[in-house]
Amino acid sequence: MKYDSTLKHLLDRFAADWIGLLAPLVDLPPGVQVEALDADLSTVQAMADKVFRLHQPELGLLHLEPQSSHDLELPDRLLVYNSLLHRRHGGPVRTVVLLLRREADSPALSGSLRRARADGREYLRFDYDVIRVWQMSADALLTGPIGAMPLAVLADDAKDRLEDVVVRLDHRLPNDPTRDLLLASSFILCGLRYNEKEIQAAYQRVLGMKESVTYQMILREGRSEGVAYGTIAARQSDLLDILEERFGVVTPELVAMIHATSDSAKLQAAIRRAVRVASLDEFQL
Question: Do residues 212 and 44 make contact, with C-beta atoms less than 8 angstroms apart?
Fold first, then answer.
């Protein structure tokens, strides 16, 4: 769950960056604009990972489903999500699976789900895109949109130079306010591919060059703090989802305040208030 929470937080915070990364991989036109949508499909107790509305020059929805573990039922779930999203928000709906490691891959993830009658005649065909992160170039990710840079640690060509990849990520963010968030996200994602000793060795140089309260905490407390970070990211995302579902567009100022809040108890209390208040003006973080 901490990996899901980390990816969801990055997608919430850096939506434009992620679309910039994905567009050439799934044949979206350059410069396409997006708007995050509620991914709750509660009519069947289903939750798609992340959904964006596409604006000019491409119309429709983009459903992004990060996957870190093997799931034989994934193609069928993708079809269900695609159909329900089309029914709720309109279409067309593009579905993209983002496989974070080889263990999540399967021959069944061919990019096409087909069903046929007993006589062999096809009656359904559902096409989707599959992106295998380990096949991507770490260098391309490190020089691409900053919000997707943490994926670089999962690329095959980063395996024998993880420390260099981490240092390059850090060097690109010398004065960026999102530096700690992006480094923390890359640290957590490293757990999908590397052992703790390898991870700590790779991040030691970054910590030696600059102080980072976030990273001192994560390295000192180990994976348990990574889980805590994922919980905070999930609560930030849940709070925004509730406010957007109840009151529509949330102001950029309030979004920034929510993302800047790292007190888990405060976020949980804010979620309870968000459910009770009658208007967005009454809500206080």
Answer: no
- Both 180 and 87 in one domain: the answer is no
Q: How many domains does the chain divide into?
A: 3
pTM across the whole model: 0.71
Beta-carbon contacts of residue 283 (< 8 Å; ≥ 6 apart): 243, 254, 270, 273, 274, 277
User: Kind and range of the H or E element at 15?
Assistant: helix 15-22
- The count of residues in the chain is 285
Place of tokens 């990060």: 66
On whether both 86 and 118 belong to a single domain, the answer is yes
Listed in order, strand segments (DSSP E) in the chain are 34-37, 40-41, 46-47, 50-54, 60-67, 93-99, 112-116, 122-127, 129-132
> pLDDT (tens digit, 9 = 90+) per residue, 207-265?
654 455 555 555 554 445 455 556 777 788 788 888 888 888 788 778 878 877 878 88
Q: Which residue has the tokens 């870190």?
A: 68
- Closest-CA residue to 218 (of 269, 181, 254): 181
Q: What is the DSSP string of 208-275?
A: HHS--HHHHHHHHHTHHHHHHHHHHHHHHHHHHHHHHHHHSSPPHHHHHHHHH---HHHHHHHHHHHH
> Domain range holding 61?
2-135
